[in-house]
Amino acid sequence: MKFSFSWLCDHLETNKSPNQIGEILTNIGLELETLSNYSSYSQFVVATIKEFKKHPNADRLNICKVDDGDKLYQVVCGAPNVKEGMKGIFAKDGMYIPGTDIILKKGKIRGEVSEGMLLSERELKLSDDHEGIIELKKDFSNGTDAVTALELNDPVFEIGLTPNRGDCLGVRGLARDLAAKGAGALKPLDYEKLDNLEFESPISWNIEKDGNSCSYVISRYFKNISNSKSPDWLQNKLISIGLRPINALVDITNFITIDIGRPLHVFDADKIDSLLNMRKANDGEKINALDKKEYQLDSTVTVIADKNNPLAIAGIMGGSETGCTDTTKNVFLEVALFDPSQVAKTGRKLGINSDARYRFERGLDKEMIEEGLEYASYLINKICGGSVSKNTSAGKLDKNTYVIDYNFNYFEKVIGLQLSSEVQIKILKSLLFKINKITDKSCIVEVPSWRNDVLQPIDLVEEIIRIQGYENIEIKSPYATHEEKEKVTSSLNNKKFSVTKKIKKTLISNNFSEVISFSFQSEQAHNLLKGDSSLKISNAISDEHAYMRSSLLFNHLEIIEANRKKGFKNLSVFELGPVYNDSKSQENILFGLTSIQKYNNKHYPINKFDFFSLSELISKIINSLNFDMKNFNIDRSQSILFHPGQSAELRMGKKLIARYGKIHPVILENFPKLSNTFGLEFFYENLPIETMYKKKLNKTHDSSFQFSEKDFSFIFEKNQNLFEVHRMLTGIDKKLIQNVEFFDDYNSSEIGDDFKSVTFKITIQSDEKTLTEEDLENVHQNIIEKISQKFNAKLRS
Amino acid sequence: MDNQKVLQDVTKEIELASSQEELQIVKVTYLGKKGRITELLKSLKDLSLDEKKSKGAEINLLREKVQALFEVKLKDLKILDINSKLNTEFLDITFPPPEVSAAKVHPISKTFDDVVSIFGSMGYAIAEGPDIETDFFNFSALNIPEDHPAREMQDTFYIADKDEKGKPLVLRTHTSPVQIRTMLNQKPPIKIIAPGRTYRCDSDSTHSPMFHQVEGLFINENANMGDLKGTLIEFCKQFFEVQDLKVRFRPSYFPFTEPSAEMDIAYEIIDNKLQIGKGDKWLEILGCGMVNPVVLENCKLDTSKFQGFAFGMGLDRITMLKHGLTDIRSFFNGNLNWLAKHGFSLGEY
């Protein structure tokens, strides 16, 4: 919402400065976004185009001789509206152009010298208009500064209004709130009711009972008017906030929209039938709107129509064929009430953002409908002359007022601040709420018609504190009760959080960097990974982000590839984040990826990494979380992400805890430089996090008696799971077998293709005594027997 | 033979030995089977018993002395050998190591950690909710009805799939749906924070289609706006590490809180650097307010008994402000050079 200081002063008698007004607006919830200051524009000056000719090398450009009162400049200009004798605003070499954010440089354009620039409104950031250069209407002498010539000495406010404050979409509403805060006094609206309404309107209304958005409409007919340019005061007001004056009738409706926040519409009465109808549009009906676009309508849209055609999209935009032009003689003014949510729906559907829609969908003051009619009639009659008809209307205006039972104690309970009932009442009254049936404890509050956002007692509390000032709310020290602290420590989510922190630390210390990537993936990745079809985003920002990701793999491959191209050496990354199985199920996982690049450094072979390094990393993570690898099972992974022969999955019971391995070569087809890449997915949410916190640390073994080590080589069937062998070995004699370490394996034709030879070292030690040869021999025999039997294995001699 | 002469000779020869091999030869010469001292002992056999005793004792004493001399010399020679071997083992210790930057923690991670720990000390436990939300949790339960202009405050991503009610699923536009999920699942008192990913279809240097928020919710019988102010001021003091923090609360509007406020903190630019805490310019930090009774009712809570406050802030934004970062997009593009510069090492995490 934009308005100038002088415009505000039409409604508010105030001794505050523009800066003070801006601050007060923010403090009462009407946030000031910008307060313009055009003083730097005084460097730009009025100049006259003395002569112009076509540019010899460019059809659209002209070469102008421009007089700034000092001397003549040659200016190459592309604007279509240049003409001889025209006065515009001129910028010289070295000046900063705010609208384009550049400093103007003298130079040649297509071979012709250009020594400056004639400016458009957009280049001066006055509006978005860039159809031509500014043409000054009045006769200022050359060299007059632009602030004077464009009347920019009136500061312009722009405020960001929250959607609940439809009442402040007119300057008058803002003035009303400012007056309540004590920033001045509200002036009466400056118009007189017309008393010479002589004739019946030849055009009348009907509202169909088809559920359309109109509940009430009122109109007047204006006969024999003349619609030329509006007076200077009106033009200047519109220009001050970046609107372009068009003709008196259009300017008046625009003015009233901004001034009191009341959109209304004027039809050229000679272009419409004698009966207007509010109705739902027929499917397939079309309208050419004032924005010069054609819209396809359907039965959700409410239109204003005559016998044949829709003339306007109700509450949103008029049609181009029935609008008022310079030649309009008779006018039909429409002021109506439309349902906010229907207007919103239609506006969104058709993609039209108009001043009218913006106001209707935020809810308008229903009592302002008559004020709008009177105010507009007065201005039309005063500016355009002619005679005015009696009212013609349809529908019913609901004049009931909204009341709220209000208890004065409620304020302190919510705000934590004591405020007497007198002060509370005073503030509500200043906002023009009516207070009835006041007792010690309560009152009945009548809400003004423009505040349709105030519905419950809490809204009154907000009104009171808003005007009293948030700075007066007492600051209370935060606290945590014993019970609350207990809840934090026992919260599963907090425990999960510290688990993730531990995993992160392990990865960081193994030189994986933490990245965060979007939760999306490309269609290509989605298809390759066979993601669930329910994960498609309807309004994705690009094809690259068309689906919710089913894996982090492609995000991380892209990241690694991009960093590789920049010559980054350590290509190991990880991320903690969600993957989506389908639209209703999300898992938070940890994903890591490392790519091994050729790296020749005799003394610093930093890039050594293979499947077993990854396996070791998994084991480090597991240990850091106080779990023992013995509690898990390892098997080949079936995941399509990985090389089938160089990947594994780790489970605890049936729960999948991790998948890891070399990335499948097919997936890496598009990343030829990343052929040696390893990934891991860690499903930490599947860990029994509660029990992990209860468990005490594993007792560490510590004995000073002599220990013995013995190596065993067995021949197993080729697909024997060694993890199971390992678990069995550690369980054979828990008192004496202290450690089992697998350290070698090999295949050979001698053993046969279906077998493998595996060697492990057993450490035997007692807590109680030095073991004898016989003791040791017993353990050895036990191992040989159990392993041979259980796994159908043979000891190699 | 004279014992004294033997001692003199052997001492001299040991001294002259320059390697373990030479020393061994000397040792054999004196202590070997036919060595001079061994011969002396052998010569005793022809003597009388008394002479055997006295002479034998003398020769044994000599032998012990000589053995000790050998041991001392042997130790010296071994150390000499080790030292001379070291000379062959010299590496070029100036060979420069490659420049490999240490892995870092993402700045957002650090912020998550700070937020969880600061609010944790105030009794706020972590709560969670899914990224793909239903219309009910993301909008209608939060008092944002369909067709309400408030929906246009947020540019929503829609998922093609529908919820049970046939409404399109959305990517949550804020962490506020976790408020609803928590209130429907827990009895007051409720004191939670919900950090997580959020989504809006918007992209420029300060907006990213994915970003992070943290939601806070405190519901009991009397939590009021004074508590809200105190809590948020304390958070900002600790997070920005500024004890003397100038802040302002100003009225705003969120459909799910009433009264609503936005909190700004003061800042100034000194030497092109943003200094937080004082000055006369304001930075918007977060939105907050008292939970709207309509929302409590939507969550089946008795509004005559319970009340409380909620707040939400952008974690990326406070991270950028705290560490002077300017482009939110760099958070999510995986640029490891950026991370090496702006990330946190293990010690700082």
So what's the overall shape of chain B? rod-shaped
What would the CATH topology of the largest domain in chain B be?
BirA Bifunctional Protein, domain 2
How many beta strands in the DSSP annotation of chain B?
11
How far is the first residue's CA from the last residue's CA of chain A?
92 Å
Quick one: biggest sheet of chain B? 8 strands, mixed
Radius of gyration of chain A: 40 Å
**How many beta strands in the DSSP annotation of chain A?**
42
**Architecture per CATH nomenclature, i.e. the level-2 architecture of the largest domain in chain B:** 2-Layer Sandwich
Q: Which CATH architecture of the largest domain in chain A would you pick?
A: 2-Layer Sandwich
Give the quaternary arrangement of the chains: heterodimer
Summing up helix and strand content along with how strands pair, one would put the structural category of chain A as: alpha+beta
Please, what is the average pLDDT of chain A?
Answer: 92
- Output the radius of gyration of chain B: 42 Å
Spatial gap, N to C terminus of chain B: 82 Å
List keywords for this structure.
A: 797 residues, alpha+beta, OB fold (Dihydrolipoamide Acetyltransferase, E2P), Phenylalanyl-tRNA Synthetase, Chain B, domain 3, 6 domains, 7-stranded mixed β-sheet, 5-stranded antiparallel β-sheet, B: 349 residues, BirA Bifunctional Protein, domain 2, 8-stranded mixed β-sheet, 3-stranded antiparallel β-sheet, 11 helices, rod-shaped
List the helices and strands and how they pair.
The complex is a heterodimer of chains A (797) and B (349).
Chain A: E1 2-4, H1 5-11, E2 12-13, H2 18-27, E3 31-35, E4 45-54, E5 62-67, E6 72-77, E7 87-92, E8 96-97, E9 102-103, E10 107-109, E11 112-114, E12 116-118, H3 146-149, E13 156-160, H4 171-180, E14 185-186, E15 204-207, E16 214-223, H5 232-240, H6 248-259, E17 265-268, E18 275-280, E19 286-288, E20 294-296, E21 302-305, E22 310-313, E23 317-318, E24 331-338, H7 340-350, H8 355-360, H9 368-384, E25 387-388, E26 392-395, E27 402-407, H10 409-415, H11 421-430, E28 434-436, E29 442-447, H12 457-468, H13 482-490, H14 492-509, E30 513-514, E31 520-521, H15 523-528, E32 547-548, H16 553-565, E33 572-582, E34 585-595, H17 611-624, E35 633-636, E36 642-652, E37 655-663, E38 677-682, H18 689-694, E39 708-717, H19 722-732, E40 737-746, E41 755-764, H20 773-791, E42 794-795
Parallel strand pairs in A: 15-18, 30-33
Antiparallel strand pairs in A: 1-13, 2-14, 3-13, 4-5, 4-7, 5-6, 7-12, 8-9, 10-11, 16-24, 16-25, 16-26, 17-24, 18-21, 19-20, 21-22, 22-23, 27-29, 28-29, 31-32, 33-34, 34-38, 35-36, 36-37, 37-38, 39-41, 39-42, 40-41
Helix pairs in contact in A: 1-4, 5-6, 6-9, 10-12, 14-17, 19-20
Chain B: H1 3-16, H2 20-31, H3 36-42, H4 49-86, H5 107-121, E1 125-126, E2 132-133, H6 135-138, E3 158-162, E4 168-171, H7 177-185, E5 190-199, E6 210-220, H8 225-240, E7 247-254, E8 257-270, E9 273-276, E10 281-291, H9 293-298, E11 307-314, H10 315-323, H11 336-342
Parallel strand pairs in B: 1-5
Antiparallel strand pairs in B: 2-4, 3-4, 5-6, 6-11, 7-8, 8-9, 8-10, 10-11
